[in-house]
Design brief:
Elements: H1 15-23, H2 35-48, E1 52-56, H3 59-69, E2 77-81, H4 87-93, E3 98-102, E4 124-127, H5 139-149, E5 152-156, E6 164-165, E7 168-169, E8 176-180, E9 193-197, H6 203-210, H7 216-220, H8 240-250, H9 253-278, E10 289-290, E11 297-299, H10 303-315, H11 331-335, H12 344-350, E12 353-355, H13 364-376
Parallel strand pairs: 2-3, 2-4, 4-5, 5-8
Antiparallel strand pairs: 1-9, 6-7, 6-10, 8-9, 11-12
Bound molecules: pyridoxal-5'-phosphate.
Pyridoxal-5'-phosphate is lined by residues 58-60, 84-85, 87-88, 130, 156, 158, 180, 182, 193.
């Protein structure tokens, strides 16, 4: 039986052409901030409506940039959902801040907005809503709490490029939004990301922090006659070769999102009936959210069922996989005060959730094989 992997990156159009142009003598610009970097940033800004988009080497780096821009220091606290990737917390912990873990909602698996306020202390500087599976967090409530308490909002939108919450693009609602172009995401360049800056007060420093703490961007615009060290910063700017790759992907937005929507809907149609009789839960998308069609997950009734279904599919060469281990129960999370039992919804979901193979090139026949094998699974 032919393997159906969990993910398979796809080349969708002009990737090779643009990469070779980035390498060619005509353009001769392979470091950062070249033609393709600017083209990607312009496209993200115009399609999303953020103040500015800065390409970065990863979503992790975009989160680290946000942490630097917020001037976080030891003793500060940042509220993050427990059910997320390590970078959501690690980026802030690197600055000495303490991640404070919030539980998630049982329906969307996003941060439980009603649990945020009681975690806020005098030391809280930011909250980081993660739009899990590209379905929006309850941003109205989160921004209301943030405004009331004077904390920043950093949207970790690694999964949700082009998705919307009440008609607003995810990543453009908080002070910052972060994106990922890792090979498992909808739009890829191998490793890559972007920081969306929505709060204009951070714009000036953002280009400095991204460029090793220097004012090189001003120098390149001819605003100063030399550039030097003016602030904290690091090397967050990707090479124009990667931006060329990404540019070709962004150009195919309509095809990529259309295809992913069809894949998601085929899984939903094939599994809905089975799920209700088997007691499994499929993804929930509130009516005021339009999703990014990033992943298809299922929540099984028990951890044992999840384990057995993954093994059943694996025997048939189908690779379904679990997702995050709740951060509050991880080794590092515990060192920051995380306690088992403190985020029960995250703990419950983490041991029951599996993600089905989901990539641009998956055929209808392959999807039907996945669905048929799930339906055959005896619980
Ligand atoms: C929610 C979330 N944030 C951040 C990241 C990190 O993204 P990157 O690999 O681009 O650094 C991931 C990775 O998948 C993620 O799932």
């Amino acid at each position: 039986m032919k393997k159906i992997p969990f993910n398979r990156p796809a080349i969708v159009g002009n990737e090779m052409k643009y990469i070779s142009r980035a390498l060619s003598t005509a353009v001769a610009h392979v470091s950062g901030d070249g033609v393709y970097t600017r083209r990607c940033e312009k496209k993200l800004k115009s399609e999303l409506g953020c103040r500015r988009a800065f390409l970065t080497t990863s979503c992790t780096d975009a989160l680290e940039m946000a942490a630097l821009l917020l001037n976080l220091k030891p003793g500060d606290e940042v509220i993050v959902p427990s059910f997320t990737f390590v970078s959501t917390a690690n980026a802030f912990a690197l600055r000495g801040a303490r991640p404070v873990f919030a539980d998630i909602r049982p329906d969307t698996l996003n941060i439980d907005e009603e649990g945020i306020e009681r975690l806020i202390t005098k030391r809280t500087k930011a909250v980081v809503p993660v739009h899990y599976a590209g379905v929006g967090c309850e941003m109205d409530r989160i921004c209301q709490i943030a405004r009331k308490t004077g904390i920043a909002v950093v949207e970790d939108n690694a999964h949700g490029l082009f998705a919307e919450y009440r008609g607003r693009k995810l990543g453009t609602i908080g002070d910052f939004g972060t994106l990922s172009f890792h090979e498992t995401k909808n739009f890829i360049c191998g490793e890559g990301g972007a920081l969306l800056v929505n709060n204009p007060s951070f714009l000036k420093r953002a280009e400095i922090v991204r460029d090793k703490g220097t004012d090189r961007a001003r120098f390149l615009r001819g605003e100063v006659d030399k550039y030097t060290w003016v602030d904290f910063g690091s090397s967050f700017l990707p090479s124009d070769i990667l931006a060329a790759f990404l540019c070709a992907q962004l150009e195919k937005k309509r095809m990529i999102q259309g295809r992913r929507k069809a894949i998601w809907e085929r899984y939903m149609a094939g599994l809905e009936g089975w799920a209700s009789s088997a007691g499994a839960r499929l993804p929930a998308v509130p009516p005021h959210c339009s999703q990014s069609w990033h992943m298809f997950y299922m929540l099984m009734r028990t951890p044992g069922e999840r384990r057995d279904l993954i093994a059943h599919l694996r025997k048939r060469n189908i690779h379904a996989i679990f997702h995050y281990v709740p951060l509050h129960s991880s080794k590092m999370g515990k060192a920051f005060g995380g306690r088992k039992g403190s985020c029960p919804v995250a703990e419950h979901a983490s041991v029951r959730l599996l993600r089905l193979p989901f990539y641009l090139g998956i055929s209808e026949h392959e999807q039907d094989r996945v669905v048929a094998e799930i339906r055959k699974f005896r619980m």
